[in-house]
Write a structure and sequence with these properties.
Growth Hormone, Chain: A; globular
Length: 433
């Protein structure tokens, strides 16, 4: 039986697909003020709008991520990208038929629904985590998952910069039509080049080969990690392992926080420091790209010193950066805070997914779904809360809202301490044994 693909090809395809789907994070962030110009939303409503894509993008990660344990990932990945394209087509059609100057609050519910569809592309993250994990051995998981998430995460930052530039020439309608074309081309490329890991190829091609025989053949070809049940089984196994839940909080803080700030920063820079749309987009891109790219060295770092030590260092950096943003009164302090938060979030995200295959080897997809899904839910919860700070405190609320990240960082340090203490206890038990 001839098997297709290599680990690097699987990684490349999954990263491309995630980059395409993750672009949905930038749905309304860079253009929030343009929509608000015509719709006159409160800051809470604006925060809900820019975060809505995160709701479907986080919750769908759980079932679709678990589905990887029975299919290998390509099928659920493709479905999520298609749902995102349908939502994007609906948004482009609304703008084309209505005209951006005629938008009003009567369109607000429809925009929320379309954002839910488009956010499906964000959910590809947990699918890709499982898909990539089954391709690579344990010793290379940190690098592989760091590269996957790091390069895929660049999408929101690039779009935060490109969308304002496109709006200047194409208006909202033309900008989102270009985005729709990008999605369609990306889906075709993903389907064309991305293979499932060997075990899933073998199971799909031959009904006569048992699961155990498929494992043996896949092992001969280099695969090390295998599922031990279907989607529901993977979710149950991951949920029963207590380490899954501290990882959820850690990921809520830094990946959910990353999603939240990607859509919140454009408004923050415009309203708090008076920057124009293009400058706000460039500063948001700096945050997004730095937090994304640093996942790659963060993954290598976690391979060398371990995921837990990596997490502790990263959260400490995040805490310092969040403090600077909270108490910033000048641009330089805020910019340094942004850089520290980006570094802390990116490195911690790499450390967390170094630990997922370590703790839940037989249900990576299920664990990726729970950690990625519930963790990414922060991208939906945090922006409206930050908008509430502004509604209650006025302009000062833009800086005080970062208190949310100080609180989350403190709880995350406690979680990393619990994981560390348990690892040391297990290590001592093995030595004594």
């Amino acid at each position: 039986m001839k098997l297709k693909g290599t680990p690097n090809k699987g990684l490349t395809g999954a990263t491309l697909g995630f980059f395409i789907g993750f672009a949905a994070v930038s749905l309304f962030g860079p253009t929030a003020k343009v929509f608000d110009q015509y719709m006159q939303m409160s800051n809470l409503q604006l925060g809900l709008l820019v975060a809505m894509a995160q709701l479907s993008g986080s919750l769908l990660r759980i079932p679709f991520g678990a589905w990887v344990d029975s299919t290998g990932g390509k099928k659920p990945f493709t479905i999520l990208l298609l749902l995102s394209a349908i939502g994007m087509a609906g948004l482009a059609l609304l703008l084309y038929t209505t005209g951006q100057e005629n938008l009003n609050m009567a369109h607000y519910p429809l925009l929320l629904i379309l954002a839910l569809f488009i956010g499906s592309g964000v959910a590809t993250f947990s699918v890709g985590i499982g898909q990539v994990s089954y391709w690579f051995p344990q010793k290379k998981q940190g690098w592989a998952l760091g590269a996957y998430a790091g390069f895929g995460n660049i999408a929101p930052g690039l779009f935060a910069l490109l969308i304002p530039l496109l709006i200047g020439t194409l208006m909202l309608t033309g900008t989102y039509l270009v985005w729709l074309l990008f999605l369609i081309v990306g889906i075709i490329l993903y389907v064309s080049i991305t293979p499932n890991a060997f075990y899933f190829q073998i199971i799909k091609r031959s009904q006569e080969i048992s699961g155990e025989e498929a494992r043996k053949i896949a092992k001969i070809n280099g695969q090390e990690i295998f599922p031990s049940g279907g989607a529901w089984s993977g979710l149950k196994k991951a949920a029963r392992i207590w380490q899954t839940w501290p990882l959820v909080l850690l990921y809520f803080t830094t990946f959910g926080g990353f999603l939240a700030l990607t859509v919140w920063f454009p408004t923050y820079w415009q309203e708090y420091f008076g920057k124009d749309l293009q400058t706000a987009g460039a500063l948001t891109m700096l945050f997004s790209v730095l937090a994304s790219v640093i996942r790659v060295p963060g993954g290598i770092f976690s391979d060398r010193i371990g995921g837990i030590k990596t997490i502790f260092i990263a959260i400490s950096i995040l805490l310092l950066g969040a403090g600077m943003l909270t108490f910033s009164a000048d641009m330089i302090t805020a910019l340094i805070g942004l850089i520290l938060v980006a570094i802390g979030m990116g490195v911690n995200n790499a450390g967390v997914f170094k630990l997922v295959p370590h703790y839940v080897k037989e249900a990576v997809g299920g664990a990726a779904g729970i950690v990625g899904g519930l963790g990414a839910f922060g991208g939906f919860v945090i922006p409206p809360l930050m908008g509430l700070f502004v509604d209650l405190q006025g302009v000062k609320g833009y800086s005080n809202g970062f208190i949310i990240f100080i609180v989350l960082a403190v709880f995350s340090l406690i979680c990393s301490g619990i994981l560390r203490k348990n690892e040391m206890k297990v290590f001592k038990t093995k030595i004594n044994y």
